[in-house]
């Protein structure tokens, strides 16, 4: 039976959003993977399933294009805020997130980041501010958990990094038992960072909201920049504001592209 979905994106990081608050949809990893396929499915970086919540306005489940269900997605949270069209608390595996839509953009407050190696998680104890590890030219990353895990490499020119080749090697390294999102960042000035991201379970994306937050937090914490920070990604810019110990505020564009219908049972 045909059911509606929304195609949305935040800076080109694109989503199929299914509102299952009134009509439940059974979602599995293989089904999400089939829907996300850009040739044989609808196509998206993440599939987002909205369900009723007993603790917030709505519950949001996040599936990467490979079908893996994950904890957080900053850009999708801002898109859902746009869809709800009012300030809302959104329940995720990473906690309840406060959101606020504004015209063509939206903001989200991510819960305070974690820096402990057990919480990233890493396979062994290590100082996450300066990890004594490296993969060819990418060395000594920082690691931050902003709801999901990120490794951040500060480099002279992030455009020169062969992220398509190194990204999957780092993502699946045994040091990261739950895999990891790989960020390569270049400091432009005291309030601007240029960023490219290899997303866990997806690959290269045009933007990653949690990656921008993790990178801004790492850069602020290590004294490389001062908050608020503008993070420039291939798909556009996000503004990140963070003070030590507090939540992370992210603001940027969130776009509704079209509404369609599909029969979910055709995807397995
Ligand atoms: N695109 C996202 C992040 C989605 C989840 C990520 N790939 C993971 O596996 O943790 C964002 O905007 O934050």
UniProtKB/TrEMBL annotation:
The keyword Isomerase is assigned to this record: yes
One Gene Ontology molecular-function label: diaminopimelate epimerase activity
InterPro entries: DAP_epimerase_AS, DAP_epimerase_DapF
Source organism superkingdom: Bacteria
Main location as per UniProt: cytoplasm
Catalytic activities: (2S,6S)-2,6-diaminopimelate = meso-2,6-diaminopimelate
Localization annotation: Cytoplasm
SUPFAM superfamilies: Diaminopimelate epimerase-like
Class of the enzyme per the UniProt entry, highest EC level: isomerase
Annotated substrate binding sites: 13, 46, 64, 74-75, 148, 181, 199-200, 209-210
Site (Could be important to modulate the pK values of the two catalytic cysteine residues): 150, 199
The enzyme's E.C. designation: 5.1.1.7
Alphabetical UniProt keywords: Amino-acid biosynthesis, Cytoplasm, Isomerase, Lysine biosynthesis
Positions annotated as active site in the UniProt record: 73, 208
Gene3D superfamilies, sorted: Diaminopimelate Epimerase, Chain A, domain 1 (3.10.310.10)
The protein's annotated pathway: Amino-acid biosynthesis; L-lysine biosynthesis via DAP pathway; DL-2,6-diaminopimelate from LL-2,6-diaminopimelate: step 1/1
NCBIfam families in the record: DapF
Family to which the UniProt record says this protein belongs: Belongs to the diaminopimelate epimerase family.
Subunit structure: Homodimer.
Protein task: Catalyzes the stereoinversion of LL-2,6-diaminopimelate (L,L-DAP) to meso-diaminopimelate (meso-DAP), a precursor of L-lysine and an essential component of the bacterial peptidoglycan.
Name of the protein in question: Diaminopimelate epimerase
Species per Swiss-Prot/TrEMBL record: Sphingorhabdus buctiana
